[in-house]
Specification:
It is a single chain. The chain is 29% helix and 17% strand. By secondary structure, the chain is of the alpha/beta class. It has a single domain, classed as Alpha/Beta hydrolase fold, catalytic domain (Rossmann fold), CATH 3.40.50. The protein has an 8-stranded mixed beta sheet, sandwiched between helices. The N terminus is likely disordered.
């Protein structure tokens, strides 16, 4: 099967453009407010946690079964900082809503996994809190189990093509994405693109990963693309460059794109982030690059 590059314009760009118009009138842009995904529940591969997920579906699906994307949130959790104690589909962060709608508009079924809320941390954690976070939320030992729980859930659905599922994560979720794609990741035995994820996108991950790949290089079982900025305030892009270089030397199928001047959360559709020209440029490229990457390796229902 030949996969083609999906169409653009992007829902993310719609959100960003709308912000300049409505920011003074409403707490969220109208284009993001109308995104209300379906709330679902499924088991983590840890066999003990019932996870919450948010399912974004194409309005007019091209077929009875669709390729899919699992989305893993960062250290701040799945919800907006303005959630004010309400943690549901209406208070998801703008970034998660925008990307969920982007994938759905492109022909994928997208599932955002809330791995923190069911474990008692729905609002996530502040910056520079890494050393004080509980082991129950580890990006190397626990969150990969959540990713594989989400994969099993999607594979059980009659509207999903079971062997065409991709993985996307941001920040701590990007780190979890890297750990999930390792040949010896927890939650799956002898993974392959057919039994696991077809490909993975990791946006500005922390690449220390608790020393997981210090002694042995990262060897993904399917293609991985890292996207990072040189002005990241939270994690080191140079560490990710080193991880990718060592992985490629060991035969790993991994790419890394570095954006000069881009910060952490460069793709967040907020005035704070998108008023930075480097972030806006990085966002534009990252959207197109992500769509091309998944079109190539995961495919689209519109092929």
């Amino acid at each position: 099967m030949t996969f083609h590059v999906c169409r653009i314009p992007s829902r993310l760009r719609d959100v960003i453009a709308a912000m300049a118009i409505v920011a003074a009138l409403a707490p969220y842009p109208a284009s993001a407010q109308d995104v209300t995904p379906e709330r679902v529940s499924f088991a983590s591969a840890d066999l003990g946690t019932a996870l919450t997920g948010y399912l974004f579906k194409p309005a007019n699906p091209a077929g009875s079964r669709l390729p899919a994307v699992v989305m893993m949130h960062g250290r701040a959790g799945a919800y907006s900082e303005r959630a004010n104690g309400v943690f549901d589909a209406t208070t998801l962060s703008l970034r998660h809503k925008a990307w969920g709608r982007e994938w759905a508009d492109t022909g994928y079924l997208a599932l955002l996994v809330d791995g923190f809320g069911p474990r008692g941390y729905p609002q996530g954690f502040p910056r520079f809190s890494y050393d004080s976070r509980p082991d129950a939320l580890s990006e190397t030992t626990v969150r990969p189990l959540d990713a594989y729980g989400a994969l099993a859930y999607l594979r059980s659905r009659s509207d999903v093509i079971a062997d065409r599922i991709g993985l996307q994560g941001w920040s701590n979720g990007g780190s979890a994405t890297i750990a999930t794609m390792a040949l010896d990741a927890p939650g799956i035995t002898q993974p392959s693109p057919q039994t696991g994820f077809r490909a993975a996108l990791a946006f500005y991950p922390g690449c220390g990963l608790k020393g997981l790949f210090d002694q042995k290089p990262f060897r993904p079982y399917a293609p991985v693309l890292l996207l990072h900025g040189t002005a990241d305030e939270e994690v080191s892009y140079k560490r990710c460059m080193n991880l990718a270089e060592r992985s490629r030397e060991a035969g790993g199928d991994i790419e890394i794109k570095i954006y000069p001047g881009a910060t952490h959360s460069f793709d967040a559709p907020t005035r704070k982030r998108q008023s930075n020209d480097a972030n806006a440029t990085a966002t534009e490229d990252a959207i197109e690059r992500a769509l091309r990457f998944f079109a190539r390796y995961v495919g689209s229902a519109r092929d």
